[in-house]
Amino acid sequence: MTAIIGRPDAVVDGVDVDAVAAAVRACPDVVGLTAGWAGGRTTYLPGRQIEGVAVDADAVVVQVRGRWGVTAEKLAGEVRAAVAPLAAGRRVDVVIADLEEPPPAGAAVRTA
Asked: What confidence tens digit (pLDDT) does each residue in 25-37 have?
């Protein structure tokens, strides 16, 4: 599904969740957003949902799948920097719910 940034139905308590999802997906060490386990973080909108993004009273929570070989600190920092301007003053909580598969043995590994 393609998100259209600025749709009025995508604004939850002052936060455009489509814009948040797009900013997170643009982070170089993010493979994608994920709801993770059953009951994981998801925003439900009319006729669709945004997995891996939730707006709480005091935080915007994003759940990501990260690139193999990148530190949690670097990944979370990228995501926080991308989302903070969109978070309407809330803190940004980052959950690293999964990592991409490691490369085959002997393949070059990208490290942070």
From this structure: 999 999 999 987 7
Beta bridge pairs of residue 37: none
- For Cα atoms 56, 82, 95, give the angle at the middle one, nearest 5 degrees: 50
DSSP 53-66: EEE-SSEEEEEEEE
Helix (H) or strand (E) holding 18: helix 17-25
The Cα–Cα gap between 17 and 15 comes to 6
pTM summary value: 0.84
Q: What is the pLDDT of residues 44-59, one digit of tens each?
A: 888 898 999 999 999 9
Nearest to 28, CA basis, from 57, 85, 69, 86: 69
- CA distance linking residue 99 with residue 31, whole number of Å: 8
